[in-house]
Hints:
Shape of chain A: globular
Largest sheet of chain B: 17 strands, mixed
Distance between the termini of chain B: 79 Å
Largest sheet of chain A: none
Number of helices of chain B: 6
Order of helices and strands of chain A: HHHHHHHH
Largest interface: A-B, 51 and 35 residues
Oligomer: heterodimer
Order of helices and strands of chain B: HHHEEEEEEEHEEEEHEEEEEEHEEEE
Amino acid sequence: MLADRPPFEDLYRDFLGRIYAYVRAQVATAADAEDITAQVFMNAYQAYGRFETRNTTPAAWLFRIARNATLDHFRAHGRRERLRRTIEHQPVSEADPAGMAEEQIQYRALLKHVAKLPERQRDAISLRHSGLSFEEVGVLMSCSEDAAKMLYHRALKALRESVQEEMA
Amino acid sequence: MNDDDDLELQALRRQLDDAFETTRPRAGFEDALWARMQARRPAWQRLRDFLSGLVETVREVPAVPAAAVAAVLVLAIGVGVLSFGGFHFGGAGSTTSLSSGAQPGAAQNFNGSGGFGRLPSPGLQTAPTADTGAPKAAAPSNQSATNLYLGPAKLIWAGQLYVRPGSLPVYRYQEPTTADADRFAAGLGASPTTRPAGTLGDYAGDGFVLGVTGSSRKPPSEPTFFLTPDRSRLPAAGATATDTATAFLSAHSVSPVWPYLIAVDQVDGVTRVSYLWQFAVSADPVAFVVNQWGERYGLEVDLKDGQPLQAIGPLPLNLETADYPIISADQAIKKALASSASAPASAPTVRLTDAELVYVLVNAGDRSFYEPAFLFSGTFPFYGATHVKRVLVPAIAS
């Protein structure tokens, strides 16, 4: 193992919550978020031997895996539209066992608004508030750092409008 | 664009920060997922760039002599026998001190009518066929600092090997079912929670979660349990890592019931207490179980900050056994050196100085085997580093 590569366990402990939050902001249920998060770390665990810190940061590496896994989730199951319907019309079930712990989280409503944003805006906000720099967000989204900033600010304003519309 | 003056957006950013900071998976998810990942540990730990698959050739094994005795070993029953030191068939000089496994503790013999017939042949992990011989493989990270060399080599035998003529037992187990896993979990006081694909089940008990997996062919591994405690509910740590690990295993009724050798290592910031699995072999003391790298293994307890993080070990299974005649020392040495013939001119020259009897798992579908073999080893220098070459020779006569 390379000297500057942290033990995978450290990565796991440091990033599990952040990756989960990133995924949870985009999918409909806590159960889906857990499934995707598990897949992310399973994949990362097996690929860690090939990870090289000189090419990317651990955060960017993990979030790339998470982003791909989330996209795969939508692609594979055609859930994009179902997600919209779920978010827009279906109240979150209080009896969902996997979501029990999340019922205590006061910001769930805000994340519902994030999930309703267009894909790239949603991604920009989720990655940025998961702790990535704009440079890292840009790399992950295949755009420049400045473009990532612009995208983020547009997403932020769109989110504000979405929240205000609901309050109105 | 500058939103610093936009108080609404600033407030929204703070709310988003809080939202992402407070959105976390349910309690227990982190440990349960870690347990599942640990169960796959060999897949990423084992010389990533050199996974070329276990060479499995099948050879004919003669019928078991009439006097051969078959037995059923019950892993869950037996007396824990603490054994100190490996078993070496002579040979001087350096040894490849690496970790390894455990063995059933008690046997319930019965008269068999003729062994297991054809057996798949055990082998070590090999380098890709295009390998030119230059050492470039490192030992698995959880083992010693030894650099393990998998490529071809010109071999010289420089040790001593004594083999007692006769036969050795081959052990066989039937792949456990989900019902077997459920029974094992119930014995530990755990109830089923989920049954993820590729596993025999996940379970939860009072203060711990349990996962059980079946055999794997690549890398070869036997059915395994992994037990992860709720670290907020652990008792005080023992005086030593071994004390803590042993007490932890005992408290969860998963102490090894076979002879073992304890090894303590530091692995990626974790203290690993390994109960290395041994088979008692007739008049000889013990034979370690080794994996496809020739590394000893067994039941492992990882400790973090002095407290148990997880225990991983072979699932207790019923083992059948049947005796097979074995090759002589001369035959074993000839077979060990035979690969020299195909070594390219650029291959390093290695003096094999040690040989020991080991047992190797060979997965064969619904039934798998622990087969005896001779593990030869020697070291050689290469660009300032010492490398270890190992050669595995099946002990069963063909």
